[in-house]
Design a protein that fits this description.
Number of strands of chain A: 2
Membrane topology (chain A): Multi-pass membrane protein
Keywords (chain A): Cell membrane, Membrane, Transmembrane, Transmembrane helix
Structural class of chain B: alpha/beta
CATH class of the largest domain in chain B: Alpha Beta
Helix content of chain A: over 70%
CATH topology of the largest domain in chain B: Rossmann fold
Largest interface: A-B, 33 and 41 residues
Oligomer: heterodimer
GO molecular function, one term (chain A): branched-chain amino acid transmembrane transporter activity
CATH architecture of the largest domain in chain B: 3-Layer(aba) Sandwich
Strand content of chain A: under 5%
Distance between the termini of chain A: 34 Å
Structural class of chain A: mainly alpha
Helix content of chain B: 25-40%
Largest sheet of chain A: 2 strands, antiparallel
Number of helices of chain B: 9
Order of helices and strands of chain B: EEEHEEHEHHHEHEHEEHH
Strand order of the largest sheet of chain A: 1-2
Subcellular location (chain A): Cell membrane
Radius of gyration of chain A: 21 Å
Shape of chain B: globular
Order of helices and strands of chain A: HHHHHEEHHHHHHHHHH
Protein name (chain A): Branched-chain amino acid ABC transporter permease
């Protein structure tokens, strides 16, 4: 172990503690600082940030072009809504909201990865699947479409979905502050989980396969299995985001499967920084904030504004906010201590998802 | 030539390819090749471009499935198995164009090679040992994408060796290297050969002279001859195919 290697590991540990610390500070600080209305907004930010993490992991680290993550968000949301209405107690429905998208992703992923579908077609298939689910749920108007007591409601969706309750006590439902703790707590837990996963042998192999699938195979790893597992994990995270999304609004409609949902989360990741975990969180908060602000005015069409932002980022800051900020910091540091920084700049470069030559 | 190891039946070859052919449409890239390699043997493959050497390697590692014929590794039939299965059976390859993990550091590259068979802790120890052995310690924290071609080749060799394969295939290990690097590579091959069997594809004749004992010559998908290095390099037919005198 060289000193440089140790310092890279220590820096990574410090950044982890800093992010988790900041997350916990927001978790416990926000209820004291903002009113109920502000807390409800922040809950939505936490939900979309979890959704962005699922996209950031599957695309930025596993290199899988899953462009229909909304399918898993929607499946998680609908699974929770249906199960919560049918069961009363929300404990099992929360687990179901994670399990259903994972099972669906495992089945879909099996055919895609073991059928040797190429990267671009995986993008097409995942996107198409989300559109199919959108059309399917849209077509469930009428009382004949029900699962147990839960009517799916077609394009009108399902109103008054019961919120999460204290486990085992269906009558003790969480209020908006309680939902906030669940949402933000989940975001911190998902972030910590993904950091741990990426530091593990499994995570390191996943990233290696993204870099060079042939080499990973020739060493003895089966890329199909690693991709399937990564895809399934990301679907579970998106499902959890869906569960929190329903709890935020108390209502669910087929728009969770819409193309705009899948597109937005891709923009979150691109703006924040592909191949990072903090980047997608920041991107989600920033863009969702802009979307909310755009909704309150009528000068610019919100979708047009979002499109302009995306084009501007791809042209001006293609690496995304976080990697660009890190590179600027590293450059500022290198001016002060050229010798030390020269050895260390290698690390931020290496941490980027796609080396410049592979990013086309 | 065939050394025996404890546990291995005497005289059974490590690798045996029987009547192996590879057709691409109407072209026979490899045509009924019979090839046998003993335990801990070092074999060099030579032949002009397009002779079928790399195709043969791709069949040995599962990247291509032979059109016909059989490939056995000790007792196991590995014909047409997946690359990761063949790698697990103990075949490691350094490909002609280096296949490395560009965005990862040298250390991370070698770690991925070591970590498949063993615990993370043991893998870290293997990585340290491998970095010293291939003199990569000083560049261990650099991203492999930034390195020079020769260094990338060694990173790839280190990654392959970290997986402790039984049989190491090296496709043009000396290509694009400086004179010093070529000598170091030759030394390294000698070291590896103390415990591992190797097949080396190379065009560099001085390099072949440096390392080879037995040489197999490929030409137009077939084995032209297989003999001691001195006799092969003195052979008129071998000189002819390399100079392109033989009419197609």
């Amino acid at each position: 172990m060289t000193p440089v290697h140790l310092s890279a590991r220590r820096r990574s540990g410090l950044s982890f503690l800093a992010v988790v610390g900041a997350g916990l500070a927001i978790l416990f600080g926000a209820p004291h600082l903002v009113g109920t209305y502000g807390l409800v907004q922040l809950t939505l930010f936490a939900a979309v940030a979890i959704f962005a993490l699922s996209q950031g992991f599957v695309w930025g680290f596993a290199g899988i072009m899953s462009f229909g993550q909304a399918a898993f968000l929607g499946l998680g949301a609908y699974a929770y809504a249906v199960a919560a209405i049918d069961m009363g107690d929300s404990t099992v429905p929360v687990l179901i909201s994670v399990a259903v998208p994972m099972l669906f992703a495992a089945a879909l992923g099996y055919f895609m990865f073991y059928g040797r579908i190429s990267d671009a077609y995986i993008g097409v298939i995942t996107l198409t699947v989300s559109v199919i689910l959108f059309q399917l749920t849209n077509a469930t108007s009428g009382s004949q479409y029900h699962i147990g007591q839960a009517e799916l409601g077609g394009f009108n969706g399902m109103p008054s979905v019961p919120p999460i309750n204290v486990p085992g006590m269906p009558d003790d439902q969480l209020d908006q502050t309680g939902i906030w703790y669940v949402a933000m707590g989940s975001l911190v837990v998902v972030y910590a989980f993904l950091r741990a996963l990426l530091a593990s042998r499994f995570g390191r192999v996943v990233v290696a396969i993204r870099e060079n699938e042939t080499r990973a195979q020739l060493i003895g790893y089966d890329p199909r299995l690693y991709k399937l597992l990564s895809f399934t994990v990301s679907a579970g995270i998106a499902g959890l985001a869906g569960c929190i999304y329903v709890n935020w609004g108390g209502f669910i409609s087929p728009t969770v499967f819409a193309l705009s949902m899948s597109a937005q989360v891709i923009i979150f990741v691109l703006v924040g920084g592909l191949g990072t975990l903090l980047g997608p969180i920041l991107g989600a908060v920033l863009i969702q904030g802009l979307i909310n602000a755009a909704g309150g005015q009528s000068a610019v069409d919100p979708n047009l504004g979002l499109g302009i932002i995306l084009v501007a980022f791809v042209l001006l800051i293609p690496q995304g906010l976080l990697p660009t900020a890190r590179a600027l910091l590293a450059r500022a540091g290198s001016r002060k201590e050229p010798a030390r920084a020269a050895a260390e700049t290698a690390r931020p470069l290496a941490a980027q998802p796609l080396a410049p030559e592979t990013r086309r | 030539m065939t050394a025996t190891r404890p546990g291995a039946a005497p005289l059974r070859p490590l690798l045996q390819a029987t009547d192996v052919s590879m057709r691409f449409g109407g072209v026979k890239a490899v045509d009924s090749v019979n090839f046998t390699l003993g335990e801990v043997e070092l074999r060099c493959l030579i032949g002009p471009n397009g002779a079928g050497k790399s195709t043969f390697f791709k069949m040995l590692t599962g990247q291509l499935k032979p059109s016909s014929g059989q490939i056995r590794l000790r007792d196991a039939d590995i014909t047409g198995a997946h690359p990761h299965e063949i790698a697990r059976a103990g075949v490691g390859i350094k490909t002609q164009v280096p296949n490395v993990f560009n965005a990862l550091t040298v250390r991370e590259n070698v770690f991925i090679g070591a970590a498949r068979r063993t615990s993370v802790k043991r893998a870290d120890a293997i990585v340290d040992e491998m970095l010293v052995r291939l003199r990569l310690t000083s560049i261990a924290s650099l991203a492999v994408g930034q390195l020079a071609h020769g260094q990338r080749q060694w990173v790839e060799i280190a990654t392959v060796l970290a997986g402790e394969p039984e049989l190491v295939l090296l496709d043009e290990p000396a290509a694009g290297m400086t004179q010093d690097e070529v000598h170091r590579t030759a030394e390294l091959i000698g070291e590896i050969n103390k415990t591992h069997a190797l097949i080396v594809v190379e065009h560099d004749m001085p390099f072949i002279r440096l390392i080879a004992k037995t040489v197999t010559v490929f030409n137009q998908g077939r084995i032209l001859m297989e003999d001691d290095v001195g006799r092969v390099l003195a052979d008129q037919r071998v000189r002819d195919v390399y100079l392109g005198k033989q009419a197609a």
